Amino acid sequence: MLQNLFKYTRVAVLGLSAAAWGGAAAAVPITVTGATVSFTFDDALAGLFGTPVAAGDALIFTPTDFKAQALNSAGIVAASQTFNVQVSANPGYLITAVNLSEAGDYYNLGSSSAVAVGGQLRVFDLETPLAPALTASITASQPLTAVTSFAAFATTDWNASANVTLPASGWGGADGAISNVNVGIENILLARSLVLGDAAFIEKKFAGLAVVTTTVPEPEAYLLFTVGLGLVGWMGWRRSGTV
Fold this sequence. Notes:
Elements: H1 2-26, E1 30-33, E2 37-41, E3 53-55, E4 58-61, E5 67-71, E6 75-89, E7 93-109, E8 114-125, E9 134-137, E10 139-140, E11 156-165, E12 180-193, E13 199-215, H2 219-242
Antiparallel strand pairs: 1-2, 2-6, 3-4, 4-13, 5-13, 6-12, 7-11, 7-13, 8-9, 8-12, 10-11
């Protein structure tokens, strides 16, 4: 009987260990390669954004359930999600900027209804992680104030964006070459209805994270640049000596 108990206990422990290892395996990051950069993220944490795909040097999201809706004096209803991705420059390239563009639609029905979109684009250097992060607010291209009615009901498109240009110095580790950054996209949707019979709705249908890169200067280019500076200096010295 003790032998059987030991056998069952051993099976249970092995089963729990396998489950633990299986959970760890499910959390392995996914890497997708663009034209000049690669994106690494945890698909299990994409949440309302949904699974993105790479297109050129952009990471494209097409969410289907990222929305906020307030009906019949529900007050303020919020929907939010944050997505983090590591961006690594492919060999021969450096990262210079990160741009976010978003789009969706909304409606305001009644005088107390209102919607809003916001959040933040945040970038920090993985090679100099203690350097201050750079941030930009996600801002709609125009006020989301269009009002519809039951008689002529229609939704209105909205667009929003945020842009971060990386610094010329202070990032990139010892060599100053920025090739690995972490990008965080914090998205917030708000809908408000304060009166019975009013309604507000806003939905995000697209988000595109575009990375701007430049090529790493070849050693020959550095050599020509140095020689050019030397030649300019020598010509200046000759002119000063002949005056």
